[in-house]
Design goal:
The chain is about 40% helix and about 15% strand. With about 525 residues, the protein is α/β, with parallel strands linked by helices.
Length: about 525
């Protein structure tokens, strides 16, 4: 940077009350390996330090960078780097920020060497929280940072689980920070490289007891979009609960987003099945590793059942593992799938859980949240006929049935939405963030069936697995069921168990698990 631009930056910093400056030479521009001074610029960091002191006296506190890994340099080169650092300090530097590091022994040895060189100003260690395995490996590789073997041993087994890596990394880095603060090094503060990602830094500060641990409440039961035009959105259909990115993509061109009600405030149509894309997110290799080569309906039902009990990481209809609240009904869901109802979405009934409840809670403090039990599933025509017979006997149940052609059947007499999640909070109107309604279900139907066909196409043409899954998608109906009595958490499952018993009796010689259509 030319001296003139530096002077403009310093002048504006002073005018705006800034008192601290980190004086760095900087890295080579992209595409260049060697650093070169621009014409009329500064060649070394010490030149910038001297310039600031000459023109601004002691107005600014000046920091420079420190590099603990210089301790690994050959003795002559290491001593020269220490000499340069001492010269910068003597030119008027107030404190040192270090490059990030993970080997605490390297840092401790370097600090002792700095002190031995007669440098007494404060040293602030640069601490980089561990966000993800790939990010950790990329950052350390670019900066040529030494990684202790203990870090690799602890993190690598979980490299595909970002949450686990972040949790373990928090403990490892916190232990490193405690050691630094405990040693007799005169370290009085820590500098965190957040990289604009606050969660890992917040976890680390909490682990070190530098900030109070505060339970973060979800403002809504689903994650809100950060897009400015969607910040007021507070209602969504339940169907995309496991595919939020797809919902955002298919509604990104709406003029307004539902706030306080769902209907008149939105555009009439969902976007086409492109944009985010109706694609299974696994590669072919990963998909086969997950789901194997199913050749019978029993194989498929087992996959769905195992997903509900968290013994399987994913299904084509879920971008993520089951939510915490699925564990409340996981046994019932597993049983349903074994009976032939292939569930792709669900929620349990909740009758006034506190808004800070660790499983069901969301929204502001001191509130209460409610849910109607909800189930969504694929089912063959024969089993569906038996189920509807029992559902029709319970006036608290509403349902929608649709097939791949778009033929819709329902027992609800209302065209409006049915709120299936709501919350009551002090000083606020009742919030109804999740709904079931016909137009959205019909839009979701196309996506749901397409995902099934995408699964089939993972397998070779003519293979038993491809034929099985394709036939399943062609012959099954997609159904959603809401039980409107949220005070009875088991009521929604009763018609399914009764229908299954009748189905098994009808097919005593050919149980439900032996065929798609029940023949």
């Amino acid at each position: 940077m030319p001296k003139e631009k530096v002077d403009i930056a310093l002048r504006e910093a002073k005018e705006h009350g800034c008192r601290n400056v980190l004086a760095l030479r900087g890295d080579p521009p992209a595409g260049k390996e060697e650093w070169e001074a621009v014409e009329g610029g500064f060649t070394h960091g010490i030149d910038l330090v001297r310039h600031i002191r000459r023109h601004y006296g002691d107005y600014f506190d000046i920091a420079v960078a420190g590099f603990p890994q210089f301790h690994f340099l050959p003795p002559a080169e290491r001593d020269l780097e220490m000499k340069y650092l001492k010269e910068k300090i003597d030119a008027g530097v107030n404190f040192i920020f270090t490059q990030m590091f993970y080997d605490v022994e390297i840092f401790i040895d370097w600090v002792k060497a700095v002190r031995a060189a007669g440098i007494t100003i404060p040293i602030v260690p640069g601490i980089a929280p561990i966000q993800t395995w790939n990010g950790f490996m990329r950052a350390t590789s670019l900066a040529k940072i030494v990684i202790p073997q203990s870090f690799l041993d602890a993190l690598e087994p979980y490299k595909n689980d970002d949450e686990k890596v972040r949790a373990i990394g928090t403990k490892l880095v916190a232990d490193m920070c405690r050691r630094i603060l405990k040693e007799d090094l005169g370290i009085r503060g820590l500098h965190f490289y957040t990289m604009n990602l606050e969660k890992a830094t917040k976890m680390l500060l909490e682990e070190l007891n530098l900030v109070p641990r505060v339970e973060t409440l979800k403002p809504l039961p689903w994650r809100q979009s950060l897009t400015p035009s969607r910040r007021q959105e507070n209602i969504r259909p339940i169907f995309w609960a496991n595919r939020a990115k797809s919902y955002i993509s298919r509604t990104e061109n709406w003029d307004e987003y539902p706030n306080g009600r769902f209907g008149d405030s939105r555009s009439p149509a969902y976007g086409e099945l492109d944009g985010y894309g109706v694609w299974i997110k696994q590669t072919k290799e990963d998909a086969i590793k997950l789901w194997g080569h199913p050749t019978t309906f029993s194989d498929i039902a087992s996959l769905f059942s195992r997903f509900c009990t968290q013994a399987l990481a994913a299904l084509p209809w879920s971008d993520q593992a089951p939510s915490k609240e699925t564990s409340v009904i996981s046994a019932q869901l597993a049983r349903m799938n074994e009976m032939g109802f292939l569930t792709i979405n669900s929620q349990p009934a909740v009758n006034g859980a506190r808004s800070d409840d660790k499983v069901h809670g969301w929204g502001p403090s001191n509130g209460f949240v409610y849910q109607k039990a909800y189930l969504e599933f694929f089912v063959n025509p024969t089993l569906l006929g038996l189920l509807l017979k029992h559902i029709e006997r319970d006036s608290n149940i509403t349902y929608y049935v649709i097939n791949g052609r778009g033929d819709l059947k329902t027992n609800t007499h209302s065209d409006g939405p049915n709120a299936v999640t709501w919350g009551v909070f002090p000083g606020k109107e009742i919030v109804q963030p999740t709904i079931v309604e016909a137009i959205s279900f019909m839009a979701w139907k196309d996506e749901a069936y397409e995902l099934g066909q995408q699964w089939a196409q993972i397998y070779d043409e003519g293979s038993p697995s491809r034929a099985l899954i394709s036939e399943l998608m062609e012959t099954s109906s997609l159904v959603n069921v809401v039980h409107n009595d949220f005070q009875d958490p088991e009521a929604i499952f009763k018609p399914f168990f009764l229908a299954s018993e009748e189905y098994l009796a009808l097919n005593a010689t050919s149980p439900v698990m032996n065929g798609i259509n029940g023949h």
